[in-house]
């Protein structure tokens, strides 16, 4: 158990809908990262937050947004869902002070029908 | 551009044998970090081992060791005495960024199957 929690574990929804994925980092970690793992694109970095502020953006679609709250949990919002958004979405956290290792949550498997 | 290459899509290894999973990387940044993660069929991503670009010695964690050859830009994972539970996807990743901006760039992965 990495100490990073993600809910829900599975999510099935229809095209055009909006969903919210939730992540709680390890105790004491300030950075939260979101990654998408799909069959055709592999693992891709989406976005990073550090202590509530957006720090880096990767291949995140405009239909997707995220935020990190004062209690350091983070939410990834996916809207106007398309079939191609079906993927495993991971949240990871890393310790403050530039610690290198990222610890991953169990992931949320999103299926868009 | 920074890139991670894993050239072995799949590997079959006999139980108890050692296995080497290949990873080469490309970066112009002198400061970087290299990681290996294991993803079993259940889907979770498990951190295995880390090597910093300035580390003098190869990293080791139990049965895992990282064969770091900086001049060749390779960071191969060695698993000694393989076990059936080692069957999984293995990903090599590189830290990209500075300070607290540490997003990871990933290789395509190697599917390792341990045969009894």
Describe it for me?
The complex is a heterodimer of chains A (113) and B (116). Chain A has 113 residues and is mostly beta strands. Helix content of chain A is 0%, strand content 53%. In chain A, strands 2, 4, 5, 6, 9, 10 and 11 form a seven-stranded mixed β-sheet that branches. A four-stranded antiparallel β-sheet of chain A has the order 1-3-8-7, with no helix packed on it. In chain A, strand 5 (42-50) and strand 6 form a beta hairpin. Helix content of chain B is 0%, strand content 53%. Chain B contains no helices and twelve strands. In chain B, the strands form three sheets. In chain B, strands 2, 5, 6, 10, 11 and 12 form a six-stranded mixed β-sheet that branches. In chain B, a hairpin with a 6-residue loop joins strand 10 and strand 11. Chain B is globular. The A-B interface holds A 2, 30-31, 33, 35, 42-45, 48, 50, 55-56, 58, 88, 90, 92, 94, 96, 98, 100-107, 109 and B 33, 35, 37, 43-47, 50, 52, 91, 93, 95, 97, 99-106, 108-109.
Summarize the structure.
The complex is a heterodimer of chains A (113) and B (116). Chain A is an all-beta fold. Chain A is 0% helix and 53% strand.
Mean pLDDT of chain A equals 93
Q: What Rg of chain B is obtained from the alpha carbons, in whole angstroms?
A: 14 Å
User: How would you sum up the global shape of chain A?
Assistant: globular
Q: Radius of gyration of chain A from the CA trace?
A: 13 Å
Number of strands of chain A: 11
Give the number of DSSP strands of chain B. 12
* Largest pleated sheet of chain B: 6 strands, mixed
Bin the helical content of chain A: under 10%
**What fraction of the residues of chain B are assigned to beta strands by DSSP?**
over 45%
Cα distance spanning the termini of chain A: 31 Å
The fraction of residues assigned to DSSP E strands of chain A is: over 45%
Which pair of chains forms the biggest interface, and how many residues does each contribute? A-B, 29 and 24 residues
Unreliable stretches of chain A = none
**Separate helix tally of chain B:** 0
**Alpha-carbon distance between the termini of chain B?**
41 Å
Mean pLDDT of chain B, to the nearest integer, reads 93
Q: In this structure, how is the largest beta sheet of chain A organized?
A: 7 strands, mixed
- Sum up the overall morphology of chain B in one term: globular
């Amino acid at each position: 158990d990495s100490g990073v929690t993600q809910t829900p574990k599975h999510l099935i929804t229809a095209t055009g809908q909006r969903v919210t994925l939730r992540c709680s980092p390890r105790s004491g970690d300030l950075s939260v990262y979101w990654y998408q793992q799909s069959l055709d694109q592999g693992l891709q970095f989406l976005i990073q937050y550090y202590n509530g502020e957006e720090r880096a953006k990767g291949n995140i679609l405009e239909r997707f947004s995220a935020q990190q709250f004062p209690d350091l949990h983070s939410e990834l919002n996916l809207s106007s869902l398309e079939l191609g958004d079906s993927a495993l979405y991971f949240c990871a956290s890393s310790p403050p002070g530039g610690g290198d290792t990222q610890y991953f949550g169990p992931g949320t498997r999103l299926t868009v029908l | 551009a920074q890139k991670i290459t894993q050239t072995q899509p799949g590997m079959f290894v006999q139980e108890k044998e050692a296995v080497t999973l290949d990873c080469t990387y490309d970066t112009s940044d002198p400061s970087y970090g290299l990681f290996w993660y294991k993803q079993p069929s259940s889907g979770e991503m498990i951190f295995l081992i880390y090597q910093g670009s300035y580390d003098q010695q190869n990293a080791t964690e139990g049965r895992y060791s990282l064969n770091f050859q900086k001049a060749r830009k390779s960071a191969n994972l060695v698993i000694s005495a393989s076990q059936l539970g080692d069957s999984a996807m293995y990903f090599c990743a590189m830290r990209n960024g500075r300070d607290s901006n540490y997003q990871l760039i990933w290789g395509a992965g190697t599917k390792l199957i341990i045969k009894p």
